[in-house]
Amino acid sequence: MDYGRLERVMRELALAAGEKIMEIYDGPDFEVRAKDDQSPVTAADEAADALISAGLRDAFPDLPLVTEEQAESHAQDVSTFLIVDPLDGTKEFVKRRGDFTVNIALVEDGRPTRGVVYAPAKGRLFYTDAEGVSVEETGDLAAETRGETRPIRVAAPEAALRVVASKSHRDAATDAYIGKYEVADMKSAGSSLKFCLVATGEADLYPRLGRTMEWDTAAGHAVLSGAGGEVVRFDDHEPLGYGKPGFENPFFIAYAPGVTLETA
């Protein structure tokens, strides 16, 4: 794999997709439809998916592609593949709350090794570089001109933790698990931004006790891994793998390695 080329392509496609998404986000009211699983979908999801899918298939025709918006791609049995959520956090998008992202990742042998997470409404862009080190890019965030980047790294947690949890999917089970820890600060965030907050050291722990799919998590997982963090299954604390049947995740915990995990 030419990781330098992959970095360039994923970054440019994420930024271009973000521009498409923001055109719709900042425009007049848009239609919201329900998919078969009753999750919402908009023209922004579809436009971003078409752009990203075409770009990835053109650049990497030999790599399988899994994307949320193409149901036929979910039947694949693969361990090395590209995986896309063109608009993660559609509920946040619909409510115009800004906590949505473009997610693109490479999974190799069941492990997310490279990824990009772009939050266009917040102007934050995170990705793994060609060496697998995670960075945040600042500046104008233009596809054609790379801005300044800085490596990001998980924090060394204090005794009392900074916890981030889902904004739209928080429940009593999540609160009960968080209650097992001494908590210094609690914040809510949408989409894969939660992984990135742990990756930058803005949070120490992100537990998810709810249904997610691999396209929801792969890019954020890659960014967190490249910043020194870990993502494990909630039940047995084994590493969260990818390429599972149907690409569905179990409950999981994303965290800085200095955190001593509590049992379920």
Automatic annotation (TrEMBL):
It is a peripheral membrane protein. GO terms for cellular component: plasma membrane. The keyword Signal does not apply. GO terms for biological process: 3'-phosphoadenosine 5'-phosphosulfate metabolic process; phosphatidylinositol phosphate biosynthetic process; sulfate assimilation. Mg(2+) 2 binds at D85, D88, D216. GO terms for molecular function: 3'(2'),5'-bisphosphate nucleotidase activity; magnesium ion binding. It comes from the Bacteria. Its EC number is 3.1.3.7. Pfam families: Inositol_P. Its cofactor is Mg(2+). Keywords: Cell inner membrane, Cell membrane, Hydrolase, Magnesium, Membrane, Metal-binding. InterPro entries: CysQ, CysQ/Inositol_MonoPase, Inositol_monophosphatase-like, Inositol_monophosphatase_CS. Substrate binds at E68, L87, D88, G89, T90, D216. Mg(2+) 1 binds at E68, D85, L87, D88, D216. It catalyses: adenosine 3',5'-bisphosphate + H2O = AMP + phosphate. It is found in: Cell inner membrane. Converts adenosine-3',5'-bisphosphate (PAP) to AMP. Belongs to the inositol monophosphatase superfamily. CysQ family. This is 3'(2'),5'-bisphosphate nucleotidase CysQ. It comes from Limimaricola pyoseonensis. The lineage of its organism: Bacteria, Pseudomonadati, Pseudomonadota, Alphaproteobacteria, Rhodobacterales. The gene is cysQ.
